[in-house]
Q: What sequence folds into this?
């Protein structure tokens, strides 16, 4: 597989200069460049001369995407190795290196385009030692990991101790009395199943220290070192390996927490310490404590994994920077994340949204809905005005997190969801039970008997094998659907299979609707990006009446998270909550905090740069914002703080901006001038634009000529109530601008797009499939015909 | 026509999603802590006649009987002022359809053309709706005229347009008009969304399909609930719960007033009758429940305690359920009785009655259904209340602390109750962070902790409650406090199947020294013996604290399940190590003797435990058991050979027309005779379950009754009764 593209077009007048440009300008420039040249030219703003690689460890696969300055060079996909995830990373890199080497030696590589940076050089180095050759050429390796999450879900975590203010030892156990948050639908209707999540800290490992600070930061009860020593002694004697410290009002005055940290460091230097004031300075002791404890629990394991991985990569000749994907959609050097591993708890789904943001900037979509269909879940995220969105009350494993987490909502509907009949209503239900991976759907041929969504797709001829080469047993799928659904409902197997997809896709549609409408957005202004292994199979079905502006199946649909890791921006975001008070009374504090936080962020960025290639980050992007809300309200709205000195007049401007935004979010006529606007949070983020790697398919020869390849095969599939012969196209063989009218299939090694009747898929310059509606479908007409490559 | 099996599922899913979206919109617009954090709200979609079809996952009791309001509108308003497309109606009248005045309900008809196809609506708790006292509740109310005067059902939106005159009529009453205005805007927006979405479904699937789907879903819910009833044993189940009340009109030396809510629950085949007609006459204010409050709480309790795992569709349950009551009683007050405190008072007693009867019914069923039985969670507690006053900057404040939401959950037939988890009736409610309350209120918390020994002892322990100590901070003004003040005189969170009730609530204003004396022990040590009984006054209107004075509030623990002497000793050891049970109580409540090894490690002294448990059985029976059972063995008691007969409860079987002990097989009573009369009985003062020994005037009117198997001494039932009243025949099997 080789990326064959025309040479970079000469710099157009609007192309930004090499160096720093405001993100909005970049996007404008990018989309403009694309319009004027038909190419997605985006300059990298990193002083990166080598390759940028994204590696994402998922539940099933570990994906690698290798990109050079002009696009995707190779991809790798291997099964994940949960016991030793670094092995999967290495295997995946090796697979990508092999693919790149193969591509470099194919005849196509002799075309002029192959002389572009990357392919030939890589091809040459690949001759001797694929992996080492690849890594030696790599400047940045960005990694999304599930090590922390798996540790949490399997409770393979450190033995944690917690030090808190005496008299408040039960904060974590009381958990704000939450007994149903995060429970599934059936458990929510079964009161005897209502319980709190099992605590990561035993009650016996919570120790109070006598101290108290009030909301103003005043010390009411001073801290006593001996008391702390005694508390720590109790914990260490109890076998604790990692200590979380969370004292009341440490956001107003962190002196006591810091002191506790110092005392522990002096007396027990081997014990890991997490301070809530350093990790998550947010108002609300329960959420802050929960976050600190999570960090303490997964910290040792994640830090050790990142250490092992880095060593392994270095041993294989990697000299570049190892970055790790965080759940706020950014990446940071592994070395920095070892201090706050809790940020790595979510990677894959979040990286997918980060990837959509980047792809959106390339394709000119500022508002994007992301839809990721996997085996067991369907995840929806949003990019609004070019920015990822954050959850207002993030939670993981039923535990709250006082950190920015990219908003991704999920339902348990995926390929493995089981279809069944509600006997009482005689209606067809899909999920929430899933057949999982083993035995999996009936068509996997591993003994699964219950019909699933994937079985329905197999029966209807939409899919005949999975990535990884598993050939599906359509007969087994038929049998399962016939027995469990078709016979009881007295209908044909095809009708039953069609119904399963209908119901499953309605659930997906519902989630997309809720993720947009419920958050106050109009889906008609959004593009929908559909990815994940199974997404492209159902795209035509769950997008039909959503009313979105455009539907895109990205070129790297089944490696989207890996691409996201590579495409995320390096950002240091620091924020600090303050005791709520009218913002007009807090001008000085706000000014002071902004300066402090910017200094902190810049210092951390400098630390990050120290492991980046020289010259990186000469120009950083600084964004300051405040979290404001009406008096005693819960909903916080982030308002950007303009550049320059913060003074009374700029604060008045913030209040006005807040009121305008409030009306937008909550509804016209809902704001008012009487209720005080409170300052709750001050945030500063420093970043520089992400490495603007372009996702694209390594296109076939057709890409150069603009002449589309004809169908490689034909397959019978069931659409709109009957069997139709459909053309099957190799995705990589399609030309730029080539349009495939449904019903048809566009397949690659990893995924298959089902182009439903009434849809036309057009391949763009990056190899992405853009889906649009055509006229009505008639089964008697010839289908799957190439409508020509011109646009 | 019949609805396609796929469309039926799609519509079912959509209706639930739409209803859930409505709640989200309501929370988003409201933005208040009560809405977003305490989730004191709910949304519904109803059939054209008001039968509730989709019931949100928030506070069930607010909406389970919303059909009453819709029925009232259909009966009274159809001609004048008329019910038309895009109208919306509001009320907070507890005599029409809400629990009490602070709950505001807004409903909207859904028309397609001029055909009424459904209703939707929501309820939300307001911090203030007017009346003489901030927060709208007062012990001193002699009638509803001393409370917030409810707003009669009014057309707040007419043809899609907000009626400003009606809005002002509503807001003018409130001390917090801005909050009320946002909540109202949220309720209207939520209804608008639902109406639009339902019309969208009609556009897509046709009006007949949607209408028929609504009936099919109601019908399926009914048949599902009837099947559930059929699989439960027929029987008569009884429970009496009490409401504590101290009105202003009471002479200082008069006996404290206590009101009984009495339920006889009869289940035959697929019908359930809840008969409350023997309840006491209504009180002269504040604590009474109206008929809508009775039906809301009864229906919600049926869903929670009997219909676990089923679709919660009240409109489908009603046909199988009958609620009987007598007007003029505390559960069915007649105008103009005061009712503002109903939810914290009589409604909790209603809920406990249904809870107790349902759990006894389930306890006699098969394994799967038995897993749905649970003892009572905290009842409304003295731990809850409204604080008000003036902060350091001179601004007035009045709000609930939400501390009461951290009482214990009821024990289950297979597990302990969820500790500090709050009411079952408010599943999504969250208490507030100390840091949030201290941000807005001139208060400093000195303590907020799970309270040792507060969970009701049982084979499975009730969830522990929690304790809150706070004082004024940053203000020189006194802080007024209105305690909800229930469960102080008696422990209200009852146990089932021989489990003990959870500890009582606590509420007291004390000096710093007194407070330290009461609570200043390290809960991790838990070595303190029962403190001496300390008599403190019942909360009254106009209580306040200032300076160094402390407010102590305890949210009570949940009830236990089964005889505590059957609890696995290692579980008791774990509780002691976790600070949930003290060493002293491990012995006195559970008969478990712990011993510190040389290493300092605590272990169970098996031999001493066996002796202690036998001693306790001897104490119960006043002599040696004739059929002794071992209870300090290694495993749970279930590991022993099963006793013959059909299950009637955790420790009771029916065999050959007789009720037998499930532990020793000893015969107890013939079916149809009074079982309790045949059991060995012990009566104890209720201060056994008082927290920190805090006792209130009126406690002497209550008694804790224990019922034991006369052969082996196993505890089969525990009742809280009024001195001088006969025991309640809690379980009466019907053959």
A:
């Amino acid at each position: 597989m080789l990326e064959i593209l025309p040479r970079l077009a000469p710099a157009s007048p609007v192309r930004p200069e090499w160096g720093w440009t405001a993100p909005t300008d970049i996007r404008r420039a990018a989309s403009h460049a694309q319009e004027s040249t038909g190419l997605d030219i985006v300059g990298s703003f990193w002083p990166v001369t080598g390759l940028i690689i994204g590696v994402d460890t998922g539940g099933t696969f570990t994906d690698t995407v290798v990109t050079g300055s002009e696009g995707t060079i190779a991809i790798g996909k291997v099964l994940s190795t949960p016991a030793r995830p670094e092995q999967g990373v290495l295997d995946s890199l090796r697979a990508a290196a092999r693919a790149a080497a193969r591509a470099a030696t194919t005849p196509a590589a002799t075309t002029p385009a192959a002389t572009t940076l990357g392919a030939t050089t890589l091809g040459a180095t690949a001759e001797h030692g694929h992996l080492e050759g690849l890594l030696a050429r790599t400047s940045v390796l960005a990694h999304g990991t599930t090590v922390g999450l798996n540790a949490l879900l399997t409770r393979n975590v450190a033995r944690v101790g917690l030090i808190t203010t005496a008299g408040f030892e039960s904060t974590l156990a009381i958990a704000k009395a939450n007994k149903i948050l995060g429970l599934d639908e059936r458990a929510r209707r079964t009161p005897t199943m209502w319980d709190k999540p099992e605590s990561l800290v035993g009650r016996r490992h919570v120790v109070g220290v006598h101290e108290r600070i009030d909301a103003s930061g005043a010390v009411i009860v001073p801290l006593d070192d001996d008391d702390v020593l005694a508390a720590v002694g109790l914990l260490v004697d109890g076998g604790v390996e990692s200590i979380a410290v969370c004292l009341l009002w440490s956001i107003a005055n962190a002196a006591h927490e810091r002191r506790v940290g110092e005392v522990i460091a002096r007396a027990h230097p081997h014990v890991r310490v997490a301070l809530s004031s350093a990790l998550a300075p947010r108002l609300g002791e329960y959420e802050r404590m929960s976050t600190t404890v999570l960090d303490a629990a997964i910290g040792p394991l994640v830090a050790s994994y990142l250490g092992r991985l880095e060593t392994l990569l270095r041993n294989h000749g990697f000299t570049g920077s190892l970055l790790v994907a965080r759940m706020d959609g950014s990446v940071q050097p592994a070395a920095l994340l070892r201090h706050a591993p809790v940020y790595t708890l979510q990677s894959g789904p979040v990286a997918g949204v980060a990837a959509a943001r980047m792809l959106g900037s390339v394709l000119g979509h500022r508002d994007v809905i992301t839809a990721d269909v996997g085996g067991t879940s369907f995840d929806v995220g949003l990019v609004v005005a070019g920015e990822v969105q954050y959850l207002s009350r993030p939670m993981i494993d039923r535990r709250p997190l006082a950190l920015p987490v990219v908003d991704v909502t999920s339902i348990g509907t995926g390929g493995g969801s089981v279809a069944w009949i509600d006997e009482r209503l005689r209606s067809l239900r899909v999920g929430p039970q899933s057949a999982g991976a083993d035995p999996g759907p009936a068509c996997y041929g591993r003994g699964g008997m219950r019909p699933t969504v994937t079985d329905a797709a197999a029966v209807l001829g939409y899919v005949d094998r999975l990535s990884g080469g598993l050939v599906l047993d359509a007969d087994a799928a038929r049998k399962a659907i016939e027995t469990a659904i078709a016979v009881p409902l007295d209908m044909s197997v095809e009708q039953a299979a069609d119904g399963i997809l209908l119901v499953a896709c309605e659930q997906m549609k519902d989630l997309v609707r809720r993720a947009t409408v419920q958050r106050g957005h109009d889906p008609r202004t959004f593009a929908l990006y559909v990815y994940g292994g199974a997404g492209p199979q159902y795209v035509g079905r769950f997008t039909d009446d959503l009313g979105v502006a455009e539907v895109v199946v990205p070129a790297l649909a089944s490696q989207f998270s890996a691409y996201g890791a590579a495409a995320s921006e390096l950002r240091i975001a620091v924020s600090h909550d303050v005791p709520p008070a009218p913002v007009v009374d807090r001008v000085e504090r706000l000014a002071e905090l902004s300066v402090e936080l910017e200094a902190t962020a810049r210092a951390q960025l400098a630390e990050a740069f120290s492991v980046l290639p020289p010259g990186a980050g000469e120009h950083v992007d600084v964004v300051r914002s405040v979290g404001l809300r009406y008096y005693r309200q819960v909903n916080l709205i982030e308002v950007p703080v303009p550049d320059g000195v913060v003074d009374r007049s700029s604060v008045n401007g913030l209040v006005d901006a807040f009121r305008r935004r409030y009306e937008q979010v909550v509804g016209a006529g809902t704001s008012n001038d009487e209720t005080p606007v409170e300052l709750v949070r001050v945030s500063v983020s420093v970043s520089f634009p992400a490495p603007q790697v372009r996702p694209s398919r390594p296109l076939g020869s057709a890409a150069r000529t603009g002449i589309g390849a004809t169908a490689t095969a034909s397959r019978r599939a069931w659409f709109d109530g009957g069997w139709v012969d459909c053309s099957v196209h190799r995705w990589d063989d399609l030309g730029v601008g080539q349009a495939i009218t449904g019903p048809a299939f566009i397949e690659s090694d990893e995924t298959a797009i089902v182009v439903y009747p009434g849809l036309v898929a057009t391949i763009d310059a990056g190899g992405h499939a853009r889906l649009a509606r055509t006229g009505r479908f008639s089964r008697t007409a010839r289908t799957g015909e190439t409508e020509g490559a011109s646009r | 026509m019949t609805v396609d099996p796929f469309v039926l599922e799609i519509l079912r899913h959509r209706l639930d999603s739409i209803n859930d979206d409505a709640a989200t919109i309501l929370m988003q617009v409201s933005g208040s802590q009560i809405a977003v954090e305490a989730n004191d709200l709910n949304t519904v979609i109803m059939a054209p006649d008001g039968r509730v079809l989709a019931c949100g996952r928030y506070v069930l009791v607010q909406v389970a009987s919303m059909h009453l309001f819709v029925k009232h509108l259909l009966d009274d308003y159809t001609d004048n002022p008329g019910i038309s497309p895009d109208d919306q109606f509001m009320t907070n009248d507890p005599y029409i359809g809400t629990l009490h005045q602070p709950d505001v309900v807004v409903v909207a008809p859904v028309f397609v053309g001029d055909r009424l196809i459904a209703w939707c609506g929501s309820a939300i708790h307001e911090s203030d709706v007017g009346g003489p006292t901030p927060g709208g509740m007062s012990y001193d109310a002699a009638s509803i005229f001393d409370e917030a005067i409810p707003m009669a059902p009014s057309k707040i939106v007419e043809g899609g347009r907000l009626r400003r005159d009606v809005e002002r009529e509503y807001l003018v009453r409130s001390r917090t008009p801005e909050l009320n205005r946002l909540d109202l805007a949220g309720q209207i927006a939520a209804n608008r969304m639902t109406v639009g979405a339902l019309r969208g479904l009609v556009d897509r699937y046709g009006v007949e399909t949607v209408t028929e789907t609504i009936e099919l879903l109601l019908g399926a819910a009914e048949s599902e609930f009837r099947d559930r009833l059929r699989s439960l044993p027929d029987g008569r189940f009884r429970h009496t719960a009490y409401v504590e009340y101290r009105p202003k009109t009471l002479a200082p030396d008069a006996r404290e007033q206590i009101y009984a809510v009495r339920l006889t629950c009869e289940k035959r085949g697929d019908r359930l009758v809840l008969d409350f007609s023997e309840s006491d006459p209504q009180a002269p204010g504040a604590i009474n429940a109206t008929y809508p409050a009775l039906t809301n709480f009864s229906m919600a309790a049926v869903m929670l305690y009997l219909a676990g795992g089923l679709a919660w569709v009240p409109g489908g349950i009603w046909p199988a359920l009958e609620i009987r009551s007598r007007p003029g009683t505390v559960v069915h007050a007649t105008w103009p009785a005061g009712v503002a405190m109903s939810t914290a008072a009589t409604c909790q007693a209603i809920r406990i009655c249904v809870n107790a009867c349902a759990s006894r019914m389930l306890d006699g069923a098969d394994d799967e259904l038995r897993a749905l039985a649970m003892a009572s969670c905290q009842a409304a507690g003295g731990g809850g209340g409204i604080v008000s006053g003036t902060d350091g900057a001179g601004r007035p404040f009045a709000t609930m602390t939400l501390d009461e939401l951290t009482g214990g959950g009821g024990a289950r037939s297979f597990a302990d109750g969820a500790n500090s988890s709050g009411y079952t009736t408010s599943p999504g409610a969250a208490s507030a962070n100390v840091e949030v309350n201290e941000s807005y209120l001139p208060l400093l918390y000195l303590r907020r902790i799970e309270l040792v020994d507060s969970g009701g002892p049982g084979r499975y322990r009730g969830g522990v409650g929690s304790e809150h100590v706070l004082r004024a901070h940053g203000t020189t003004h006194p802080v007024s406090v209105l305690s909800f003040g229930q469960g102080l005189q008696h422990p209200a969170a009852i146990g089932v199947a021989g489990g003990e009730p959870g500890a009582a609530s606590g509420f007291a204003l004390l000096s710093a020294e007194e407070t330290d004396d009461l609570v200043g022990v390290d809960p991790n040590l838990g070595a303190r013996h029962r403190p001496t009984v300390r008599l403190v006054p019942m909360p009254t209107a106009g209580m306040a604290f200032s300076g160094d004075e402390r407010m102590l509030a305890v949210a009570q623990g949940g009830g236990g399940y089964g005889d505590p002497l059957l609890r696995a000793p290692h579980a008791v050891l774990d509780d002691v190590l976790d600070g949930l049970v003290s060493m002293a109580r491990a012995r006195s409540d559970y008969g478990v003797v712990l011993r510190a090894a040389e290493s300092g490690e605590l272990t169970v002294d098996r031999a001493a435990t066996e002796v202690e448990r036998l001693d306790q059985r001897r104490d119960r029976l006043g002599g040696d058991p004739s059929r002794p059972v071992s209870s300090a063995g290694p495993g749970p008691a279930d590991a022993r050979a099963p006793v013959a007969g059909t299950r009637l409860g955790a420790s009771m079987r029916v065999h050959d027309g007789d009720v037998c002990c499930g532990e020793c097989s000893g015969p107890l009573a013939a079916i149809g005779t009074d079982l309790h009369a045949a059991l060995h009985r012990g009566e104890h003062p209720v201060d056994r379950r008082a927290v920190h020994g805090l006792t209130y005037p009126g406690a002497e009117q209550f008694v804790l009754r224990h019922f034991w198997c006369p052969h082996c001494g196993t505890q089969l039932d525990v009742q809280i009764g009024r001195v001088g009243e006969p025991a309640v025949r809690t379980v009466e099997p019907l053959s």
